Amino acid sequence: MNKSSIRIRAGLRMSELILIYKWSILAAVVVSSALALIGTQLAARQQAMQTLVVSQSASLGVVLALGLLASWHGEHTHPHEPSLWPTLSGFLFALAMGLVSQKLIRTKWPSRNTYFIALFCLLMALNACVIAISPGLEAHTSAAYFGDLAVSSEVEAQLLSVLGILVGLGMLMAWRRLTGISFNLMSFELPPLRRRDRQLDWAMNLAGFILIAGAVQFLGLLFTLASLFLVPVILVRWHRSLRGLAVRILLATGVGAGVGFWISLSWGDGRLPTVPTMALTLPLSAWLIYLLGRLLSSSQRVVSRGVAP
Fold it and tell me: How confident is the model over 149-191, as pLDDT tens digits?
């Protein structure tokens, strides 16, 4: 068999895999992009560690619901069980932990992140204990943290895609106002004063909790945290406009998630795990977008100097 035949067969096989996993790829790109927009606002408010605690509490809520379902049905239950109860439980736990941590751990406390790390450790220990004592949840141990988009059903991927699109569009429509709220919170420690701003801030938090709970259940904690912060932490320091920052974040996240999924499918006959691979390609994509933007800016400055009288 010559090399051209091998390349043709590999191309056909890759096309078949893309068709098979089209909904999973769409969910990865859409949900990761929406989470990155949310993570940008949370990072601007210095709530990254608090988000880590909220995500872990969502994982605990999902595990508890799966454990209860397994005990009631007396059969194996896994994170991809077609039920909304784990997602609802994860959302309620995330919401409760977000409110409790916001009230108990004050913004002005010194070493505030230390308390969040302590909470995260306790929640992770509880998560492990629930998995250990609940029948049929051993398989959730790895899925809860690393996830695997390749085993997600089409219904799950479609639901997550719709949720990600709605949350992402909402974030883009309110991007300027949300950024103003984040700026006032960090610069002047002023909560939203106008009623519309308070409602918008609550809407962002609720949408973020719902999307985080769904992403943790079906895509894993690693995917959720990687999507929230890996791209924004690189691009947030280089921007000239709020709209430009949002566009670059969406571009870098979409490309990174899509390329990561493609690499995991094509490398070694799918032996690379999907989510860890995407966690590596997301920052690489952000750096490429960053360097490309710097290159274009330098080229524009050179051109403007050349045509200047």
Answer: 766 778 878 888 999 999 999 999 999 888 888 877 776 666 6
Angle made by CA atoms 235, 240, 241, in degrees to the nearest 5: 95
CA distance to 16, 140, 225, 289, 307, per residue, from 145 (Å): 28, 8, 10, 28, 55
Selection from 3-17, 79-93, 196-210 with the highest mean pLDDT: 196-210
Query: CB within 8 A of 154, min separation 6: which ones?
Result: 23
Give the Cα separation of 145 and 248 in Å (integer).
27
Please give the helix or strand (H or E) that residue 295 lies within, else none: helix 274-307
Torsion of CA 222, 277, 152, 94, to 10 degrees: 10
The Cα-based distances of 99 to 65, 74, 94, 96, 170 in angstroms read 21, 34, 9, 5, 22
d(CA 86, CA 101) in angstroms, rounded, equals 22
> What three-state secondary structure class fits 82?
coil
Listed in sequence order, the residues at least 6 apart from 271 whose beta carbon sits closer than 8 Å to its beta carbon are none
**pTM of the shown model:** 0.83
